[in-house]
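WARN no homologs supplied; continuing
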Amino acid sequence: MPERLKFYRGMVPYIGFRQTLMEFDCPPRFAGKRSYTLRKSLKLASDGIVSFSDVGLKLPLFVGGIISVLAVVYIIVSIILVALGITPLAPGWVSLLSFNVLSLGLNLTFIGVFGLYLGKIFNEVKRRPLYFVQTSVGQPLPRRVEPAPGDHWGPG
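OK structure emitted
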């Protein structure tokens, strides 16, 4: 795979190698301190999440949609309460609060839509192969066909 930041623990299952579980007892360390710190472990975890998932880019779309729906429900309830003469807050605060929350939800929703496009671009830029060939039959096809001497392809 041609990507530059390789996450091998995710690539091996992605390629499709057979795997099995192997249990073992890890003996205690007999010398020195471990060199793999908590910071390195967190970086490995974030690399794995970012390399093989676009959930973080879809999260604002989901959260923004929920906030927008709740804001619209709050606006409808507020209009009904004002029409009935029940005002839970000082005049003007209901509309100010509801439209601020609605704008937050819409902003998050559009950031989430942008994240979907960004995720598609990210997957294309990695240039991972669409499939892996385990075995082939016959002669492999040449990668590039060159014109024979005397043949003219294209202009000129």
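The mean pLDDT is 79.
OK
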